[in-house]
């Protein structure tokens, strides 16, 4: 980026007065959210409340929707990533994304992991990078003898961990996850949750989930979103996960986590 990023204390990323539109429709309104570094933050709330829209705003994925626009700021290490001198491709390298459905490339397991590093000009030992990334994604022992096989030959859970390895390989600082286990069976889901816990030693993780139990198990902080009468999403409550689930400050939060709506 042409302008350097600067450290912003304990926060990995921050949204200030965030309003996100698709055309004339305001999808989320007045979002103010500071997310702590090397912690797992879960974004929860009913369908349509803007969780994924907010998540995608953190690495400018919404830019790929022609009608979208953001009013406000998203600060990453003190720099607003929506300023004109900021390269969105570089933003997405430093703030990676894992999607709801595993999406490995139709390439070998090895090439899936190496691809991002190659296009970003990685000059080091690629074999070491691939192994390190697969180890961090808790997949190395399962695939080390078949790195030339297609990534599409793996099970759903393995494919998702391969996608996580691919994200890790470009050395991001933040990993965004949009319901990364919703398409997986319970055993594969548990593996992803265990993996996320180990990854927070090195990365800030922000995860969207519809699964209340998953949010309670896997996250350190939780942000609860709802939508108003105009169907604009807004932030109801944010705090430590244990507090949100055992002693919520807002009645709407309590109603949602106890299953009375959503």
Give short descriptive properties of this protein:
single chain, alpha/beta, Rossmann fold, four-stranded antiparallel sheet, 10 helices, 26% strand, globular
Structure annotation, total helices: 10
Main sheet overview: 6 strands, mixed
User: Briefly, what CATH class of the domain at 11-102 and 174-257?
Assistant: Alpha Beta
**Topology-level CATH name of the domain at 11-102 and 174-257:** Rossmann fold
Strand portion, in percent?
25-35%
Strand order of the biggest β-sheet:
6-7-8-3-9-10
End-to-end separation in angstroms reads 41 Å
Brief digest:
Helix content is 33%, strand content 26%. It is of the alpha/beta class and 262 residues long.
Explain what you see.
There is one protein chain. The protein has a domain at 11-102 and 174-257: P-loop containing nucleotide triphosphate hydrolases (Rossmann fold, 3-Layer(aba) Sandwich). 33% of the residues lie in helices and 26% in strands. It has ten helices and ten strands. Strands 6-7-8-3-9-10 form a six-stranded mixed beta sheet, with helices on both faces. The longest helix has 14 residues, at 186-199. The model is unreliable at 1-8 (pLDDT under 50).
């Amino acid at each position: 980026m042409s302008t350097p990023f600067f450290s912003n204390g304990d926060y990995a990323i921050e949204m200030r007065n965030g309003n996100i539109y698709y055309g004339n429709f305001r999808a989320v309104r007045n979002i103010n959210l500071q997310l702590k570094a090397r912690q797992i933050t879960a974004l929860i709330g009913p369908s349509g409340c803007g969780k994924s829209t907010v998540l995608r705003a953190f690495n400018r994925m919404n830019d790929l929707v022609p009608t979208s626009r953001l009013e406000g700021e998203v600060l990453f290490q003190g720099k607003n990533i929506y300023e004109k001198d900021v390269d969105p491709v570089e933003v997405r390298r430093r703030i990676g994304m894992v999607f709801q459905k595993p999406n490995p490339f139709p390439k070998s397991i090895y090439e899936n992991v190496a691809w991002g590093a190659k296009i970003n000009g990685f000059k080091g030992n690629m074999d070491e990078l691939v192994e390190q990334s697969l180890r961090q994604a808790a997949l190395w022992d399962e695939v080390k003898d078949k790195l030339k096989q297609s990534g599409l030959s793996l099970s759903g859970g393995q494919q998702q961990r391969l996608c996580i390895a691919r994200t890790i390989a470009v050395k991001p600082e933040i990993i965004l996850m949009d319901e990364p286990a919703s398409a997986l069976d319970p055993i594969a889901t548990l593996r992803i949750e265990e993996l996320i816990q180990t990854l927070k030693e090195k990365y800030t993780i922000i995860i969207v989930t519809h699964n209340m139990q998953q949010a309670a198990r896997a996250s350190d902080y939780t942000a609860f979103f709802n939508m108003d009468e105009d169907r604009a999403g807004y932030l109801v409550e944010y705090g430590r996960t244990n507090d949100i689930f055992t002693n919520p400050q807002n009645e709407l939060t309590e109603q949602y986590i106890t299953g009375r709506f959503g």
